[in-house]
Each structure stands twice: as structure tokens, then as C-alpha cells.
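User: Sequence in, structure out. Go.
Assistant: Echoing your sequence, followed by the C-alpha cells.
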Amino acid sequence: MAMFFKLLASIQPKRLGITFASIFGFIWLFLEPAGLFLPQWLNWGWWGYGGLVLISLLVAIALSLPQLSMARSLSAADCTIAIKVGDLFDEPGHLVIGANDVFDTELGEVIKPSSVQGQLLTRLYHGDRQRLDQEIEMALEPLKAEKKREPNKRKGKAWRYPIGTTLALGTPDRRYFLNAYGYMTNDLRVKSTADDIWRSLSCLWEQVRLKGHGLPVAIPVVGSNLARTNLPRMMLIKLIVISFVAASKKDFVTTKLTVVIHPNDLHSVDLYALEDFLDSACF
């Protein structure tokens, strides 16, 4: 019910007005001539007119509600791109988890439990931090030549890896792609830029191509909330889609990409504009 009221509040008045006028006019177009032949049936007076207005308004509201889920085919790459409002961890297939450049896992001051990375530990690893750290270290072993130690970092992990480093945890049927898109500062704040996001996404798609076996992939709006990119969610979503389209036109990545928007972030996105954007991106 709360979601419905959020959607109701997000209806654009202009779109609602145009839809209402179209429906009211369409119905009136048939009722007016019918009144000439069946006046005894259509002599409803003001009550009838008010009912017509109410019905037209309700239908207009139903048609004007933004879609919680939208999908378009990218024919050149034989895949589908979807944008939806929901819970990332309810999505089937592989998941993308945004991470910092040291791949911290300690909940609390270092990693917020409410973050996607925090939920990876609590919901998918059931709080078993040791197991998660072991899998991360195993995945990082081939990249040890690229790591650099941060001597001034007092909390969390101290070995830094290049932005874009992507680890494939889990199993071949259910991968968790940890993608380093942000720099963890020594005061435990994650910083990132548009360039960092683009670089990390490019590296992510390459790993998905190599280790995803074509299975569907779901990704949150990386770079929002605690990552200080200064980029609005709308721009981040478009950046994700554009980078995926670019990678897919180069070579096949996956059969389906789903960008998942958390329900709490509904107020900061324009679902109408995203639908139009998806139409133009998937030409």
C-alpha cells in the first residue's frame, strides 16, 4: 500500500491531465450521438456527468501510474535490459555487489549493515565474515601483484587494489560479482567519480562475460548513497545502461541485465524518463 501511494504521488500532473482529457473525450464522442437516438436511456443529468468525470479520472490515474518494471530488447546483442523497483537479493541469477578498493567486510563503522555490501554478508553469507573473507582472499590471489599497502589506514583492510577490480564469488550458477568502484579513504568514507564508475563498469562487464555463462545479472544503482560521487541516481542508472550497451555491442555479455532500484529511492528517480531513456538506448 505504501508503494502505491508513492507511485500515486509521482504521477506527473501534465501526463494525468492529457490522459484524462483523452479518455473523457473518447467516451463523450460516443455518448453524445447516442443521446440523439436513445434520449430516455442517457438522460442522466449532472449525476451522469459527474460519474463520467470520475470514471475518466480513475482510468486516467490507472494508466498514468509509472511502471515499476520495464524491459527492452537489445536486438544487436540478443539480450534484454530491464529496470525495476525491488530488492536486489530477490533477483535470480548473478548479483553485482559494489565494493571499495580494499574489499572491506567489517560491519559497523567500516561497512554499514544497510548497504548492499553489508547485506551480502548478513543475507547471503548469514553473517559468516570469515567465510566471506576467505573467498575474497582466494579471488584476490591472482591479483596480488597489483595490490598496494595503505600505511595510514587504521581500521578495516589495508591492501588497496585498482578501481575496477572485480571478484567472482559464489558458484557458477549464482555468482556475486564484487566490483571495486570507490576509494576507501583513511577516515572510512568511500569516494568515487564518474570516471571511476565507468572504469569499474567496463571491468565488471568483462568479468561477467568471462565467468557469468550468459546467465541473467542484476545490479543495484552503484555509486549512490554512501559513495560520494555527487551524481544523481538517474545519471548513475543511465551510466550503467550505456556502459552495458557499449560492452554488449563489442561482444556478448549476458542474456539479461536488470538494474534494481530500491523502493526507498523511488522519490529520487523519474520512472517515466527512465522508460523513455530505455527506449532510446535499446535501438
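User: And one key feature?
Assistant: The chain has eight helices and ten strands.
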